[in-house]
Structure formats: C-alpha cells, structure tokens
Design brief:
267 residues; alpha/beta; Rossmann fold; N-terminal domain of TfIIb; 11 strands
Length: 267
C-alpha cells in the first residue's frame, strides 16, 4: 500500500515518529563502534538514518519505491560521511536474496505485519539469520498479543480516518476508510478493504482501493521461528525501557544471536 501514491510516504513520516526503539537498539549493542547493519522493511529510514548518523554502515531493503525515495530525500539532511554509509535497495524480501555479513539485522516496528500469513512471516527469519555473520544479532520487535486475535482489530468493522489520512505539504489531502471483510480470531488472521480518497491541490479527486490481509504474530510463534533457525535468544523484552517480558508487557521483543550452526536458506 505504500506505493499507492508518493504522498503516502510523507504521511507515514508524520505518523511514525517514535525514537524509543532506536534508543533501545543502541543500548542492546552497547559501545561497539562501526557495526554493519541490515534493516529490511526500512521504509523512509526512521531506524536506518539515525544509526548511520551514529557511524554505522547501514543497508535498507524495501519493496515500496515511494518509501525509498522519501528515505533518499531525507538523507540530504545528514552529513556527507553519514550519507556515504547508507545503501537502500528495492527488494521483495520473500523473493530476493538478502545481502550478508552483517553484525545486526533489525526486524523492527511491527514490520512482520506487512506479511499476510504466519508462513510468510516465518520465511523471513531464515534469510535474516543467514544475513548475520557468526556472532551477529537479530532484533525482532512486535506488539504483544497472545491467544486469539484481539477484538480491537475487528471492532468496529468500519473505521474512518485511518492511515493514510492527512494533508501533505503541497496541499494534497488523503482520507482513508477501512472495512473489515473477514477474520478468523483463533488463527489470528484478518482481511480488510482500505478505500482512500485523494484530493489534489487543483481539486481533482482520485479514489483508490486495496485489500489487505494481516496476521499479528504471537511471541510464541516468533520464539519458535528463531530457535528453528538456530538462533540463541539472549533477551526477551517487554518494553522500550528494556524491562524483561511479562504477560502484561506491551511489546514482545527478541534479541537473538547467530551461532555456528545456522542453516543457509535454499536459493
């Protein structure tokens, strides 16, 4: 949906502004300088750019060209040395080979929600593990939800002013409505139709529609996927302060390490 219109990346930047996860990631890898970091689902660079500014070499992957274009434009605000440490690549993480040899791979910001099924989500853990050098770390961050699909995902069935909604700098206005068309609460699957009305600065109106399916992951699923790929879970955290995970925690975040026996994904 992020290639629905280039303005969507601008609206995304206005709504996704948190920095707490970046601060936690910095604390987790400590004082180690000049890491090589891979950020799949990098979007407009919310996580990518500050780490490059810190002095790390970063590579971002995303399938939405509009998001990558926005990230490239934001790089202009960085010092030249930081810009030279950044590479962004358009890639479908389910179909294309990931680059390798990284000290850290970040699956942050609920990025697994961009994939429609648990099977697809599980499929990104193998290339994430293989992208790490031995001893490298994988960070995975999701909302915490166990058991059946939380009712907040399907009640009410119709919603106004959902993402992407807002006004862009050039006067282009977006208004989006969401309608849940199907869900399977025990299997944690939901499908919905998102209708977006785009009003251009000259008054012309364009209507767009997309259908999406999502699967909010559980911590149990992620833990199984990590261990199945030979990763050692060193930390299981429940908030951006770095507190240990509990049943009441808002987040389910894993800090895991690649050992010597990680399986290479088939080509």
């Amino acid at each position: 949906m992020y290639d629905l219109d280039p303005h969507v990346a601008e609206i995304y930047d206005k709504t996704e502004t948190k920095t707490e996860d970046v601060a936690l990631i910095r604390r987790l890898f400590g004082a180690r300088p000049r890491l090589r970091i891979l950020v799949p689902f990098c979007g407009t660079g919310r996580i990518l750019l500050p780490l490059a500014h810190d002095g790390h070499t970063v590579v971002g992957l995303d399938r939405a060209q509009a998001m990558l274009d926005r990230a490239a434009a934001k790089m202009g605000d960085l010092p030249l040395a930081a810009r030279e440490r950044i590479t962004v690549l358009r890639a479908d993480v389910l179909q294309e080979r990931w680059p390798r040899g990284f000290d850290l791979v970040i699956l942050g910001g609920n990025c697994l929600y961009e994939l429609a099924t648990p099977q697809e989500q599980a499929r990104v853990i193998a290339p994430a593990a293989a992208a790490l050098r031995r001893g490298g770390h994988l960070f995975v961050d999701n909302d915490h939800m166990e058991g059946a699909l939380d009712p907040s995902w399907y009640e009410p069935l119709e919603r106004e002013a959902v993402f992407p909604s807002g006004e862009c700098a050039d006067g282009t206005r977006f208004h989006s409505r969401l309608c849940v068309t199907w869900y399977d609460a025990p299997r944690r699957l939901i499908r919905f139709r998102r209708r977006t009305r785009v009003t251009l600065p000259d008054g012309k109106v364009v209507d767009r529609e997309i259908v999406q399916q999502k699967h909010p992951v559980s911590a149990r699923e992620v833990a199984e996927w990590l261990t199945d790929e030979g990763l050692v879970i060193e930390g299981f955290l429940g908030d951006y302060e770095g507190c240990p995970h509990t049943d009441a925690a808002p987040r389910a975040m894993f800090w895991s390490q690649r050992g010597v026996d990680v399986r290479e994904p088939s080509e």
